[in-house]
Fold each of these.
Amino acid sequence: MLIGVLLLVCVVFILAEIVIRQLGASLGGTDEISGYVMAIVTSWGMGFALLELSHVRIDFLRGRVNALGRSLFDLFSMFVLSSTITLIAVRSWPVVERSLVNSSRANTPLETPLALVQLPWFAGWLWFAIVAWFTLYAAIRLVLRGEFEQSEAAIGTFGEENAEIHT
Amino acid sequence: MISSVTIGLLGLLTLSIPVGIVLFLLGFGIDAFFSPFPLIKGLGNLVWSTSNNATLIAIPFFVLLGEILVRSGIATRTYAALDRWVSWLPGGLVHANVATSTMFSAISGSSVATAATVATVAMPQAEKLGYDPKLFSGAIAAGGTLGIMIPPSINLIVYGFLTQSSIPQLFLAGLIPGLLLAFGFMVVTILICMARPELGGVRRVFPIAEMIRALVQLIPIIILFSAIIGTIYKGWATPTEAAAVGVAGAVLIAAAFGGVSIQMISESVVGTIKITSMIMLVVIGASFLNFTLASAGLGAELKAILDGLGLSPLMTILVIVCIYIVLGFFIETLSLMVVTIPIIVPLVAELGYNVIWFGILMIVLIEMALISPPVGLNLYVVQGARKSGKMSEVMLGTIPFVIAMLIMVAALIAFPQIALFLPESLQ
């Protein structure tokens, strides 16, 4: 929810910038700040989108097998996702670390200390990885107990009738 | 390298691994097998620089704009107003479906949102007035696809970002083809209803005074469209800033109709974050794949392949069109676009074609994918709003409109100026 507020504040900030620019002045740095907001909003939104089953998957083959088969597809793809996201999170840390060690500031008039915005961004990816592993763990337990329906609700795909994917 | 990537891509996608993750895996693969130096060291920086981006924040803004408008009730008013203006044509209300989709496309960056909105408003009318369900729902599914062609368009922002081409130019280039397609859809409807009048329901003529009164309902949408597109071309605002203006406009419109509440705004924001994250995982994956492909020497390999094939540029474009039509049956649309851009666009540019023009051609092909079974999202959205009848009716209903799109594809290839005229003349 906090992330949503960030997005709305950003809208107001940009509007103010447009008006002020027409008057011949500038707040300065709206672009830079929008960029940071975007980075943080997406990294924190990813885990949420995962729980809401929003990340697009092609279920061309998956849709043609029985419940056990489907849950195996789901577990496999969840495992691959968790590993990949963990790798991304691990590889993202050096970016933050360098900013921390060098106390780097952005090469802009705002001179934003980069660690200040990169830490929350990195934490978002880390959170995504943690959420992914926990979901996988929970889903494996469900599948082992034979509760395919529930595991599908946790890591399956959305019925396309309910698709809310805006493209 | 290209053949390994293509096989890997299709194989991993079939395993139903999330599309964004597939793109990362391919990037890792290229790094391991084809790159002379370890690219993975750049992964963190690349993810940071792709998401720390003031251009891409236009995506959540345009999504939010659509989410707010969908909840504001403006679609109902627009539909009723356009009904007064177009229902005298053979095909009656079917034209209102296309016209409302076109209007809504001009403020929404998304095709599925457009189709969903129009379907919810229009479907109850179809049964009341005795329209053929196939034609009626087909027109909504097809009309909805205009959302990604007529600016603003989320897909064009993503295309512009990944190919490093100008988003304002892409928006301008999409305008005429989008309007032509809408016109084409109406012509198709008229032809069908002249041949088979029983499909078209009742034609109704409204008094002039009522028609003019109805125009008032269209004013908010027209103002909002002008505010978004006008501020970009006046040079007052970047596409991102224009999107922010659009969000404010949408809130004002919703407020004017009495639909704004904390709950409505928070629902819209939550929906926006979900969709944005979904899009961004795919976009970040694609830019990582782009980076590894370029570093591993894609350009040289493409040139070698092209020389080896000995096809003329036109033949190559036709082959590409066929590839998109086939893939469009199986792959969801944004994914189809994003996974193919890293390979296809450099190839097209290498052939000497204009990248802006190709973006528009690709959008028409993606629009076809949106309504081609079994994985056509718009079909499901329209069927979902119908609550009765068979899915196959919607699928059959879209066929005439797919023909109109194919004609558009041919026209764009024969006369690139359809897309390039506006951006070139306003440069």
Note: Chain A touches chain B through 67 residues (CB under 8 Å).
Amino acid sequence: MLRILRLLVKEVFYTVLLILGVTALLSFLFRLMPGTISFEKNWLNEYLKLLQRLFTFNFGVSPVSGLNINQVVFPAFKNTFILTFGAILISVIISVPIGIFSAYRSFRGISWPLTMFSYIVSSIPVFFLGYLVIYLFTRYSNFIPIYSATLENKRQLLAYILPILVLGLGNDSVSEFVRIISDELSRVMSMDYVVASKARGESVIRSSIVEGILIPLVTIIFSRIPFLIGGAIIVEYVFNWPGMGRLAFQSTLNRDLPVLVVIAFLSVLFVRGGMIIKDIILGFIIPQEM
Amino acid sequence: MKRFYFEKEKLSSEEFYVPLHKRASLRDVVSIGFGLFVVTYLVIFFLISITNSFIKDPMKVDIQHMFMPPSIEHIFGTDFLGRDIFSRIVKGTEAFFLPGILSIAISTTFGLLFGVISGYYSKTISSIIFYFLNIIDSIPRFILILIVIVIFNPSIYLIMLFVGVTSIPKVSSYIKSKVDTLKKQRFIEACRALGLSERSIIFKHIIWISSRSVLIIRATLGMGEAILIETSLSYLGIGVQEPIPSWGNMVAMGKDFFFQGKIWLSTIPALFILITIMGLYLLGDGLNSIFNERVSR
Amino acid sequence: MSILAELSNLRVYFYDSSDKRFIRAVENMSFPIENGKVLGLVGESGCGKTVTALSMMGLLVSEPGIINGKFLFEPKEEDAKYIRSLLQKVKVSDPDEEMSNGDRLNLFYGLKKFISIEENPFTIIKNTERWLRYHDTVMEKIRGKNISMIFQNPLTSLNPFLTIESQIRKTLLRYNESIDKHEITDMILELLRSVRLYNPEAVIKMYPSNLSMGMAQRVIIAIALASNPKLLIADEPTTGLDTTNKYRIIDLLNSIIENKGLSMLLISHNIRLVGEIADRIAVMYAGILVELGDKQEILKIKKSPRHPYTEALIQAIPTDYDLKKGKKLKVIAGRAPNNKIGIKGCPFVNRCFYATGEIKKKCTSKMPPLVEVSNGHFIRCYLYFK
């Protein structure tokens, strides 16, 4: 337990250090932009002021668009979080069985076309996949709605389904998950201890589950977060989803750099937070000496 | 059902033998074959495009012949301004070909450089390098690109340069872990014992022999990523913009006509994106399984 | 003398895709294992002993694998019926293929259905996938419960992510359905004490990486015994251990066999070690059985009929007398044959002390048959072939 705590402290410390660096970079870029109204003559002061704003989560008002950043960004973040979380869930649910099929000899006959199919769907560019899905669902039935602020609650819940599905299946997530899981599982299945446990009559899958599935899964889920945020930008655009991605895109069109900087900051927190959680989970699973 | 053939006549415990015909691993051959096919048509398209030969003018507007479905005259039909889609597809490769190569060049060169330095030298130097790399790595790539777009209003080349930069951390950590495993191996010590100079050790053994497979694979995957990013940006309207053709902006422009049944305007470029990216990924995958021999299943 | 298990005419070939050749791993291997007795399988590295054991357990995964043979085994009563029904489901093509002999069932039954060797042109037609899948369903009931196998490196045989306690618990729960939670911990501790680990409370909390080789091997033995098998196959169990531990483990195995009436197949390259506890010894060379007999007959130094290879093996181990006299080590000149090349005749001929003149012609032309030189003692050599 103490070991985990020590790990946690180390990670948080490093993340804080990292964020300091990130904000330095961001404030530097900020300064570079031609035409920025710079209230401070000194870059250092500007940096410190930015730091203060970010760390107190009091982002103020954007001089470019006049938006109250706090009001806009936090709900957007929540929505993107839901989207990302749901997408990860879908990716995992689909790719784990396919990965196991791929690796486990008995099912070899089925796996090849199935794997291929998942690769293909994953590789469809997310913007087209999204549009295709919308087309299919709106043309042929009205059941699953596209998000709009005016929907009543129950229907709104259903609107969650499509973008989560698209982000989970597309964006190359499934193909990467399947590839890594089936690679690791195959590797682990031929390791000595798995063969030894098979010789004792134990199931190969059960013995190889931790190293073959759990560890690569945990690693890759949290490492994919940055990619998912990137994909979310497009998916939110296509589905009109009020998340951080759509906000980022709108800010780009408006040349609203302050909002973008805040979004970048929150994304970094999201990403690093995920890394910390990942390391803690792995810390529990993997015994000390390894 | 597989058949194994024996050459010699008798199969018994006294004498028997030998050689054999067996098919090679089908999956890898297909992956690599398909990937090479994709690379081939990319190169051909690109060459055709920059030499402006063999194809119709991709910019030529012809209102008389709008929305024509695929035919012999126009292999992929025409778009909403009567422009020939096939020639626009070919021209569209220009949008990502050189920029993509720029991005892989940057990510592999600097990735290799940083990876080797941090792997070979002390832990402190390594930590410092990775601190800076992690700063870049922590910001989701797309958001960084958006910020860059707002600040610099860049051309697609500059954007791809940044994409390359954002890939450096991953490549570096890959290379560094390779260097780490190599360092532990005895043959490095053996080299030193033989008196080979440090530099020749680094260059010859570590970089060239061990990393080249990683780098080639990273290059193919990196090209795939570059294409994805370029087309996504162009789709959103902030990459390559009309009237210059990019597969991304073709999909965007064509999508409005999807409902009217004129699906080829956006489906064809989307298919090209799909096949190209998939081909590159399969190529990388296939090369990976050849170079990094895994235990067979 | 009741025979628990009998392996007959096992033939295992592997396919080398880089050289495009078959490797003859095991050829015409047969031996019986008696109830409550230990059979030692001796031979140098690469002679095919491990492959034989893996074939018996159905753990071979390389192609082609087992292509011929019969393995009669008497499973536990509760499993016999089920396995018999599994075997009956297979419709064999060859009516001579034996499904059972008394209470013993042929675990390789149905092999010919999936794998057939045609005479003209000579082909092995294989349906490896289906054979493996079918064989797996049969072997699932055998592995652990009826036959347990332990391997050379105990540390890599344990799951590095689980504590010793969880690993033993898994096995116990698997084979004893109704156990109380508190009972289980006691059972685990008792099991560890029975393999002479005297601080089991500490051991169960450890991870495999905390254990020494000797401790780990005892844990492995404990787990193998937890399921109460009828036959234990030990593949080089002492090879990775230091000398003191070697004899301790062998001693432990000996006492376990006596206490539980277990049968064992002990595989090793060290004939002396095997001689400590084996009742019968089988000697293997280049995938072929060259001698099979009681321990006394084989290890006797003077004047008992023996295969030249066995004799050379025993002579190669220096005795105290030799050491005192400062004599040279007797080595067996030459190298083991490359199994990839087709071998005509006896594989030991190039290194055999006795293969000279007249006899050599016979040795190089055809493989000598097994000859029974005395009751239960078989030797495959032209020296004894009349």
Note: Chain C touches chain B at residues 15, 17, 20-22, 24, 27-28, 62-64, 117, 119, 121-128, 341-345, 366-367 (CB under 8 Å).
